[in-house]
């Protein structure tokens, strides 16, 4: 089974693709979609939508997983995150791809063993779980963690 993990953000959405065979996980690809903060919102969302659709076309995942929205202290940031998340979910929906939504704490628990893990611990565990994988950046790493968590949770 091929799983696409998504870590949505308006400024930089991470994506990661893994192959799951039972409890074994293998890295396929990962990347980040960065948008120009000076561009109009509609243009940024369109860029994000098209990029995720292209990832789906390139890697043909069987399913996707996306991190749930968390509430920031800044309501404007939360709204932008929700718009980006809606955009990536719509991209999956346009291709008929089922999407599993996971809380950040659940992703951390599935990958590291504790829901309170920090980003450093998640990144270190990715090196153990995906040896030799070149990770495009922190957001791509987070997306790979989402994909791994979804694969493990489906296998359980």
From TrEMBL:
Binds 2 Mg(2+) ion per subunit. Keywords: Cytoplasm, DNA damage, DNA recombination, DNA repair, DNA-binding, Endonuclease, Hydrolase, Magnesium, Metal-binding, Nuclease. It is found in: Cytoplasm. Its EC number is 3.1.21.10. InterPro entries: RNaseH-like_sf, RNaseH_sf, X-over_junc_endoDNase_RuvC. The active site is at residues 7, 67, 139. Mg(2+) 1 binds at residues 7, 139. NCBIfam families: ruvC. The RuvA-RuvB-RuvC complex processes Holliday junction (HJ) DNA during genetic recombination and DNA repair. Endonuclease that resolves HJ intermediates. Cleaves cruciform DNA by making single-stranded nicks across the HJ at symmetrical positions within the homologous arms, yielding a 5'-phosphate and a 3'-hydroxyl group; requires a central core of homology in the junction. The consensus cleavage sequence is 5'-(A/T)TT(C/G)-3'. Cleavage occurs on the 3'-side of the TT dinucleotide at the point of strand exchange. Homodimer which binds Holliday junction (HJ) DNA. The HJ becomes 2-fold symmetrical on binding to RuvC with unstacked arms; it has a different conformation from HJ DNA in complex with RuvA. In the full resolvosome a probable DNA-RuvA(4)-RuvB(12)-RuvC(2) complex forms which resolves the HJ. This is Crossover junction endodeoxyribonuclease RuvC. It comes from Erythrobacter rubeus.
């Amino acid at each position: 089974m091929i799983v696409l993990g998504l870590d949505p953000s308006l400024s930089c959405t991470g994506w990661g693709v893994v192959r799951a065979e039972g409890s074994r996980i293998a890295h396929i690809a990962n990347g980040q979609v960065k948008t120009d903060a000076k561009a109009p919102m509609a243009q940024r969302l369109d860029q994000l939508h098209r990029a995720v659709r292209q990832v789906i076309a390139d890697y043909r995942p069987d399913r996707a997983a996306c991190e749930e929205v968390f509430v920031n202290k800044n309501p404007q940031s939360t709204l932008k995150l929700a718009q980006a998340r809606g955009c990536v979910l719509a991209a999956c929906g346009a291709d008929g791809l089922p999407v599993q939504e996971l809380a950040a704490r659940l992703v951390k628990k599935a990958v590291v063993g504790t829901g309170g893990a920090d980003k450093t611990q998640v990144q270190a565990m990715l090196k153990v779980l995906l040896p030799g994988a070149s990770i495009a950046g922190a957001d791509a790493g987070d997306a790979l963690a989402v994909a791994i968590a979804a694969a493990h949770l489906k296998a359980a």
